[in-house]
């Protein structure tokens, strides 16, 4: 069995954003030389997510509105976590959108369902953060 590991770095200039990272994950697969196996992709921060869904801007707007309803950023004083920081909402948004995805790797390609793409969800940006890509197989 072969294995491959790479960290993808992001420095999102806004507090929140959704970024399609499928091309970077596909580049990792090419670099790994692995054709059959599993691809794990996870945020390495507790205020960011990796998830799979549609690359459709209306949906991303809807996610942002939905997440703000469930865990509004303001007022920051509503959260006990926000002593010396202001990112309690980001921890909750990450919990809702998830930590990682696992995708089957078949014949050198991500074995996606229709419209599936991999996204990095940033909820407390404006600093360097990373995503782990781990590929195992043959
Ligand atoms: Zn925090």
Task: Please outline the helices and strands.
Blueprint: E1 2-11, E2 17-20, H1 22-32, E3 37-43, E4 48-53, H2 57-70, H3 88-97, E5 100-106, E6 109-110, E7 117-122, E8 128-137
Antiparallel strand pairs: 1-8, 2-7, 3-5, 3-8, 4-7, 5-6
Strand order, sheet with most strands: 1-8-3-5-6
Assess the beta-strand content as a share of residues: 35-45%
CATH superfamily: YjbQ-like
CATH hierarchy: architecture: Sandwich
Secondary-structure content class: alpha+beta
Which CATH C-level class is it? Mainly Beta
Give me the Rg, rounded. Answer: 16 Å
General shape: elongated
What is the overall pLDDT average? 98
Structurally, the number of domains stands at 1
> What's the total count of β strands?
8
Unreliable stretches, pLDDT < 50, 5 or more residues?
Answer: none
H/I helix tally: 3
CATH topology-level fold name: Jelly Rolls
SSE string, helices as H and strands as E = EEHEEHHEEEE
How much helix, percentage-wise, in residues?
25-40%
Could you walk me through the main structural features you see in this protein, from its secondary elements to its overall organization?
This protein is of the alpha+beta class and 138 residues long. The protein has one domain (2-137): Jelly Rolls (Sandwich), CATH 2.60.120.460. It has three helices and eight strands; from the N terminus they run ββαββααββββ. It has helices at residues 22-32, 57-70, 88-97; strands spanning 2-11, 17-20, 37-43, 48-53, 100-106, 109-110, 117-122, 128-137. It has a five-stranded antiparallel beta sheet, with helices on one face. The model has no long low-confidence stretch (mean pLDDT 98).
């Amino acid at each position: 069995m072969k294995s491959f590991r790479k960290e993808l770095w992001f420095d999102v200039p806004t507090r929140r954003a959704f970024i399609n990272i499928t091309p970077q994950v596909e580049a990792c697969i090419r670099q790994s030389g692995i054709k059959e196996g599993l691809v794990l992709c996870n945020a390495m921060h507790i205020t960011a997510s990796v998830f799979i869904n549609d690359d459709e801007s209306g949906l991303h707007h809807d996610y942002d509105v939905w997440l703000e309803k469930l865990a509004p950023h303001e007022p920051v004083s509503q959260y006990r976590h926000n002593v010396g920081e202001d990112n309690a909402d980001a921890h909750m948004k990450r919990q809702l959108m998830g930590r990682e995805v696992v995708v089957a790797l078949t014949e050198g390609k991500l074995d996606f369902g229709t419209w599936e793409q991999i996204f990095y969800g940033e909820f407390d940006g404006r600093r360097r953060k990373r995503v782990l890509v781990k590929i195992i197989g043959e």
